[in-house]
Each structure stands twice: as C-alpha cells, then as structure tokens.
Amino acid sequence: MAAPTETSFETSRPALNSYQTALCVVPPAHICRDIDRLRASHDKAYGRWPAHVNLIYPFVALESLPRAIELIRSKLNSRVGIDQDQGPFPIHFDSSDSFSHRHGSTVFLAPVDFGEALKRFRSLLLEAFGRDAGFAPSSREEIYHPHLTIGQSTADEADYLMSKAFLLLPLEWDVGELVVLVRERPQDQGDASASQMRVWGVIGLNQHGACDIRRSNDSHGKIQTEEEGLDDPDASKAPIAQPEVTYYFYENHDSWAPARPLTSPSSHVKSPSNLTVSSYNVLVDSTFPPAEDRYPLLARTLLSESALADILVLQEVSDSFLSYLLEKDLVRSQWPFATHGAPGQRGNRRVGPLPSLRNIVVLSRWRFRWEWLPFERKHKGAAVLVFEDIGIPRRPATSDAQSSSSKDGADFLPLVLAGVHLTSGLTDSAVAAKKSQLGALVNHLSRAYPENPWIVAGDFNVTTSTVTIDAALRSMSISEETASTISSLETLLSEVRLSDSWFVARAEITDTIGSAPRPMSLEDIHDGEEGATFNPLENPLAAESVGSGLNNRPQRYDRILVKGEDILDVTGFGMFGFPEKGHQGDSEIEGQAPQPRYGSDHWGIRATLKIDPGLKAKWAASTDSQVSLEPTKAPKDLANISSLKFCLAKHAMLPTEDEINSRKEVFTLLKSILRQAPAQAAPTSGDTGGAPLVSAKSNISLVIVPVGSYGLGVWNASSDIDCLCVGSISTKTFFALAGQRLRKAADLGVRILRTVKAASGTMLELEIRGVRLDLQYCPATKIAERWSEITKIPPSDPLFDLPISSLKKLNAYRDMDYLQRTVPDLAAFRLAHRFIKTWAQQRGIYSARFGYLGGIHITLLLSRICKLLFRSAGAVTAADIICTFFNHYANFDWKADIAFDPFFNKQQRPRYQRSATREPAVILSLHAPAINAAHAASLPSVRTLVEELKYADRLLSDVGITWSKLLDGDERQGTITDLPSGAHDFHKSYSSYIKIDVQYWGASLAKGSALVGWLESRCVLLLVDLNRKLPDIHARIWPARFTNKDTTDSDKDPKDYHGCYLIGLAKTEKAGGNAPSAAAESSDRKKLAQGALRQILEQFTERIHGDEKYFDAKTSWVEVSHIKQADLGGLSLDTREWGFFIHEDTEPPSDSDADEPPEELPPGANPAPSPKPRSSSKKLRPAHDILHRILWDPSLDPSDHLIGYIDRFSGTKEMPVERWKTEKTDEEFVPMHRVVYFRRRSDGVRVWDREGRLDAVFGSGGGGG
Question: Residue limits of the Poly(A) polymerase nucleotidyltransferase domain (predicted)?
Fold first, then answer.
C-alpha cells in the first residue's frame, strides 16, 4: 500500500471551527465550589458552562471528536522522554483582572507568569492539528490569554467583582486531565443560549501517554439543572436545594473551617427548652470600596442585651463586614457555627468570598447542616438550616408516614430555619417576584420537611403601609391585581400555618421588649405601619435609601415566622438597633456634641420561643370551651380585599387624605388651646398628646389624648373625636378653665355646643372647624405625672386606686392602648371594624343608646374574634375575619355566655355577677372595674341583633354574594328610595308600628339636642315595658329619627323641627297556636293586648310630659300613637341639628368624684378661707369604692367578705358581697348610704367601718390599714 501523501494527511486533520465543542482545563471539584458560588451570582454562563480555562475553542465538529482525540494522544505520546509538557503540570492563579467590552467588563482569574505553562501546552496540542502557536481560531481572539472567567459586571462595578475574585486566590492544582465539552441543546429550543456544555470525554495526562476517554460519572463542574433528579413530575419547575458547608470556629487553630460531622447519634445533646432568634438587615450602603465606619456599632448592637440570641439571621452581609464580625472573640464564643467562614481567611483553611454583594448569613450556638435554595432571580435564595440538636420527638404515625420520614431519624424531628431576603421594591414585577420566592420556599419546606417545626426569618420586603399601597395605585405604579397579590401573601403563609411572632406577641404577651426611639403618635400612624422595622420618618439611613418617592412611610419589612403552634410558643418579642449616642472610640466631629448614630436602615427583631411538645394539650386544658373558635373562610367572591375597600369608600367609610390632615389640625388646635400653647406650634410626629405639659404659669399637669374611634383608627368623616384629658386639678376647675379658653378661641372656629352629664361623667360637646369633639376630664395627679409609664404599670399598682368614675374614664384609654398592642393584624381589624359598623348602620342596629351595637361593642367583639382566629388559624384576611364574626356571634349563646377577651386574663375567667333579668347580653370591658358595655341591651334589642346576625350569616353563604349586596341588598323599586336597605325592609316588615312624634320650636341647639337625646334614652324603657307586659310581641325600634318626606322646603319653618321614631311590632313564634279553640283565644288575646298596649303608651306619654327638666310644653311636644303600615306615608331620615348655636353661660360642671386632687389655682388667685380642720386629714373612701375594689381586685376574694348595713325595720344586718344588688329596680336593692361596715368571714376583721373611719382596703380615713 502506498504511504499517504502530505496533502492527504493534512486534509485528514479536522478543522478547528466548531462552537459545539471545546477542549479545556476544569478545576477539581473542591476548588470549583467557591468559584461556582461566585459565578452563580455573576456569570451569565453559569449553569451552561462549568468553571474552566479554554485551551482550544472553537474546537472540532462533533463527528470529528474521535479523530481529534487520536491526534492529541499521538502527539503527546510522541513527546514521551523528550519533555514534560505532555504529563501533569501545575497551574497557579495569583491575580484577578478584567477586560472591557461594549456592555461592561468581564472579570477573571489570571495564571501566574501570564499562563506561560498553559501556552506551551496549548502550542503542543495545536501542532497535532497542524497549527502553530499563533493560531487564532476566532476573529474575536487574536492572542491567546488563558483565564478563568468569574463573571460579568458593569464598568463601574468591575473593581467590586475583582475584589471578590481576589478572595479566591491563590488557586493552584496539578492539571492531570483535559476535558472535552460538547453542547447539548434542549430538543424544544434551538438557540445556543439555552444549551449546556456537557463533558463528552476526559483525556488523562501522565508520563506514559494519554489515558482512555471516560464518558460517564464525571464530576467536572457539571451543573445539575432543575429538570434533573426529580422523581415528582409536578416538581419539575421547583428549584433544587444545593447542600452547603457549615463552618465552625476551632479555637486550637484560631480559624474557621468546615465543621466535622457528628461521629455517632449519641453525640446529640439534649434539645433546649427555650430558643431565641434574631434577624437584622445590616445594610450595604456602598459597592466598592466598602464603607466600614458602621461596623463597630453593628457589632455592639448584635452583642447587646436586646439583640443577643441563640440564632442570628443577618441580611445584606458583605465580605468585609463578615470578616470583621468573625474576628471578634465574643462573636466566636457566642456563635461558633456559621453558614459562611471569614472571607479571605488564608492558610490551609482558606475561605472564599460570599456569593454576592448582599448575602444571607446565619450564626448559631447550635450545630446545623444547611442548603441553599436558589430563586429565579440571581442573587436571591434562601438559606435552609436543619438543627440537629434542636427539635421534638416524632409523633406516632402510620407506617406510610414513617416510610417518608426525614433523614434525621425516625424518632426526632429537628427544627428547620430558613433565612430569607426577598426582592425589594413596589412594582408589579417586584411583587410577583416576592410571591414566586415565597411560594418556592414554602413548597420546598412542605416537601422536604412536612412534619418539622419551622422558623422563617429575615427581610421580607413586603410593603405593609396602606398609605404607600394606595399611593402606588393612584400613581399607577402597581395594578389592582398586584395590590391583591400583596394581601394574598399573608394568606399563603397562613395556609401552611406560619404565624408571625410579632402578631403572636401582640395578641398574647401584650408587651414587647424594646421600642422605637420616638414612638409615633396615634394620629400619624396608619394601617400597616405598626411595629415598623423600616422607618424613614425616624431613621435617616432609611430616609436616604428611599429618597422622596412613594415608599417613605414606615414598613414592617422584617419578620420571624413560626410553624408549629402546638410545639413552639412565642414567649417574647423585641426590637433593637435603635440609635446610640457617640461611643468612645467612634469618630466624632471635634467640637460638636455626639450625635445619634444608626447601625442600619432597619431595626432588628428578636423572638423568644419555648419548645414544648405538649403545648397544644396545655393550651386546650387551660382554655374554656367558650373561647374556642371555628374559622369561617370567606367565599371566593369576597376574597378580593380591593372590592371590600371600594365598597367602604362608596359608603364614605375610608377617610381621605384631606380629612386625615384636617382632623390632625383640629386635634392639634384643641391641645394648643387647652394648654395655652401657640396654635402654630404643632407637635412633632412623636408627640402623642400624652406627654404631660406643665404650664410656665403654674404647676398644672395636663395630658390630652384621643380615644374612641379616632384613637383606635376606625373613624370616618361623620365620626366625632373623643378626647380624654387627665390632669392635676379638679373637674370643676378644669371645665371652668377649659370653657374660658375655648370661648376665647371662637375666632379660630371653636364653639361649645353643650355640656352633657353622661353616664361616664361630665362631657363638653365641641365643634372646631366643622369637626365634632367630645371632651372628658379625669382628675388624677399622679397618673398625669407618670403618663409615659401608664401602659407599662401593672393594673394592681396603687397608682390606680382611683374612684370608680375616674377609672372608667381612664380605662377608655387603657383599653384602647391594650387593643392596639394586642390585636394581631391591626390593619385587617380596622377594615373589618369599618365594614361591620357600616353593616350595622345600614341594618338599623348601630346605636348603643337603643341597646344595639355601638363602637365599643364592635371593638370588643371583633378584637376577641381576631385573637381567637389568630390562635386557631394564624394570619387571616379582613374578609375571613368578617365572615367569622357573623357566623360566630349569630350562633353565640347570648343568654348564658359572656363575651370577654380570653387573653387579657389568662389565669381565670373574669368574675362577673350577671343579672339574668336585666342583662340579656354581657360584653365585658378589659381593665378593672370591668363593666358590661352592653348594659343598655334589652331582650328585644338582643333578639333583633341576633336576627340580623343570622340573616347576614345566611347571605354570606349565597352564591354570587358581594360586599355591596351584603350592605345595600338588591336593587329596590318603590317610594322609599333614599333610605338604607335595612330601613326599607323595616318599613315593609311590620303590619303596625308605634309612632313617637316629637316637635321642637325652640332656638337653642343645646336644648333641642338635649330633648331628642333624653327622649331616645326613654325609648329603651318603653321597649322593656313592652316586652314585660306583652311577651308575645316583639318590638323593634329603628335607631334614627324620621321626618315627613312629602313636606317641601317652602313649607318648613326653619325654627320648627318635626320628626318621629318608629317601633315595629310583630308576633313572636311562640304566640301562635294549633288547638281548635286557638282562633277564639287569639281574638281575646288580641283585645287584651291592644288594651295593654294603649295603657303602656299612655303611661309612657305621661312620663315624658311630666319630666320638667327636659320637656317644656312651651317649646316642644311629644305624642305617641299606634298606627298601621299604610299610615306611615313617605318618610326620610332626619339628619338636621335641632336648633341654632346660641352661647349660653352655664355653671362649670363638677363630677361627684370621691377623691379629686386639691385645687391648683392660677397665679394671683386668692384661695378661699380654709374650712375648719376635720379630725382626720384623710377623707374616708365611700362604701361603693370598697364594694367595687372587693369585687374586681384579683387579690381579694368576694366570697370571704360580708356587708353590714342598716335595715329600716330590723336594724343592722349582714349580706354576702356577692349577693349585693346595685340596681335600683331590684327588689333587694339597698342604698349605699346605709352600709356601715365590711368584714371578712374568715377572721371577722372589719376592713372598712364608717363610724370608726377605718379603711384597710385603700388606707383612707383616720384608721387606715
């Protein structure tokens, strides 16, 4: 056979022009780990190319690979014994560099001596293909520069990425093999960007020639794709968790290194019973070079008492900060385990850089193993830790369940903690990314750790302020769908039983450790801003990061979520990271006072947990069956919170920005007038009106705070502002001074409408710039002086030994403050509150005066629902809260049960003696003396309330129900079209009505208002009388005044007011009969009933006309009649004020408080002559104060006390305290002035004696104990 010619030999060499293959050097797996961690965040080729150094690329066509490998082998064998280039050779990288291109820079690692060893070896390989060393296979690469690509960056971030790459150095290994890569494209995609370079073969290098090609089981940088290794086809799109290395600090080596695995199961230590977890975003505020001035402050913060925890979850951790932190001896001793070592640590225990600029790092006292769960977006993911020494015993399970047990052992369920830092921003794409990331995390935890207890901690970046969300909607920065998505994130978490530890602490602990440096006022805080961890209004670093955009409101970004409510009990929650003054060693400007310094733009949070496998059983044993609650899920048609807000806005229940600002100005003006401060001196955002102001002219302390709907944040445009003043002067003096100052401010739009003697005490009704205000005063000197501590002082403190009337006023604020601190989701609560109030108004059952629901009733009932719902179902939406409210109270046993807050007093049920005849419903207030807020309820009003609750509950189960239908009903036709839907039904539901006509032609607004107010209070007695004398008749009053709709404006006298109240009459179900003689008996009963009704109405009319205080026949008239439905005529609601404002000088009011403070007169006033001193300087507390103290003080046992009183016929008698009647209508009622002593049963000791002036309860009188 003829030998081949030179030409034929050359043509048999494959061309080096195919981008489908590459010949390269790949680092060993242990070196690739750190490189790939960095490439994953910065290299666009990560996942498609392994870490590599190209030798020849493009290489040969795929079909020419066997021939190419043969040529390489032949060439290397030909050099055996001639030089060492064909055998293993060392490669050493000692620098990082970059080269620029049109879109930025590519950062790479460069070998020592410019890679001369690689260049020589490459020249040898090229000779096998007939090419010289200067061969350039691509026009893009004229000269061969061996390099290992780390990633791409913008031009201005190239230095940053090079600094991270530098932390990988030095790198050195022996190149013992060459790797052939081939491109594999997915069958359904043809572009190269979707392909992946796979290892086709490996050429081993040794002194004796090339090894055989290995085609399988390679480990050369192969990146597992999301489609690989999935047994579950439904999980094909789920991210794959990547096992990572846990670091431990070894004192003997003074360095961080991979933690050694446990040698045996016996190495497990006993699981702790308590656990603390802290989370803190430490803020990266510069890319490169890193700003290190905050590092000492951050380290002090993390080691402070308020932040120190067993597990520390950090976000936005940079390489330089982690290196700084892990060098601290206190850090190393407190947290010897970490997800990452100290970046840049040299020597044999070299540690590479963190994967990105802002990283999640977890430090722990306890051993763990962990994995990284990547999200769709680069740089984003979750660190999932499994704590091998913390957990609970596995519950007994079926064999199927045990077969799918976790790898931690069949008898132990370790705690799983996930650290997160979700995508920031309030845009459609950012919110969608958050939802995707949370969903990916929840799905992974549910699949991998379904039975384990979970903790999820970190910066969720979920916008919580409703002001911010509404502003984004108005500016079209986000869509309505995105706004709904934000709300749905809470649902996503609650569906997997993840509870927010902040919510739990609010609901069950009532107090948290640590607070904002300057708490925001109730007027300045909006829904979703409570517990904010990111507050641009208080933190200058936060303000700098958001600028002047929409997101300048406080947000609760940071959270610690817990799953395992029957295992993990939240026992504490706190915040940390508040500013500190200049610290020794920190740089300060010379000559200036130290300024507050902030460690981060976030506050940190810490949760304290108790690990108790028997927690669920203990809760069930300590909880009364009455407070169990079954959640009612809202129908799909009602799940959209945006539609709920739209419905409320249509009914003017959501205040506008102008209305919010207007009320702030009005309240500020009132405070400035009463405090005699300049009107323009508006308080700062931290002035709640609660800080006691001491006048420069006297030592009068005066606190002014909002209470009621405005204080609770559930008000609307028609609501009054309820104001409570607490001060060091008497009631009479306060109202005298207040009256003077308010009248002087008439030019500012201030007027006093009237003085009201309400059940809670004297009250001034004011109007300031069109806004109504109710002003009450509580005389309590020590309370005013210690106001800043008022919510932290225990109820048993002697500070609250006040008269009952004072305590009732003060409790309006204390109860409100408690609810604001304990309702889990205050934003959802407020939304639900507004809807329920609107529903009650539309259905004619919103009026506490008539025995229906009032604001306080809705507040107490709804807060109870929110807390019980959170305990049983976790965080829920406002729609779920509303549906549960209707279902629960529609089926509530009002006759037997008491509605109370089960979390306020955990030790026992509240002690309350219910009157079966006078209290058909009991809704207890909170702080002692706990009173029945539903004291005005009657059997007819409770029956009406239950009927409406059941009706609403039935509507909620209808297909296609909407919020508007629930409030307004269906479209109605008829003569009455301007009435609420409930009023329309009311006018059509009864065959006859009691009509109470009232007419007033006086000019005084105060007298007109007093007349209708007094008449409405008498109507309740009429209902009670009707129910007692006509039990077969159900009477329902509509709680509003009607007027004749047909009367034209020209017919109306502007000084003549005419209206009416209507009471619908209907037979009760028990009134019917089926006996043969039922018809005859019915006729007789009807006549008797009509006669009794006439008598009742005549007696009611006589009582009204006989009251000279309120009824004046010269200016008013009241007439009561029984009419049929057809005689109602056209009616509309009368919303007028009856009368005109006329200034009337009245005597300053004075409450009958038993223990008012001494008068504090203004300077220059001459005090009245002192009366003759009494035998004792201390006034004896009255008997009713002693009675209430014994009844409501938990430290006193009412059953151990007797009351001694004077009987008019039998002399001194005794009665147990628990049997004492306080209602005047009770047959056993005894006036309190007949009480002469109280004594204990157990030892016979008198604890209070009127004659001997002894008081061992309060210590008053001459013989105090």
Answer: 634-778
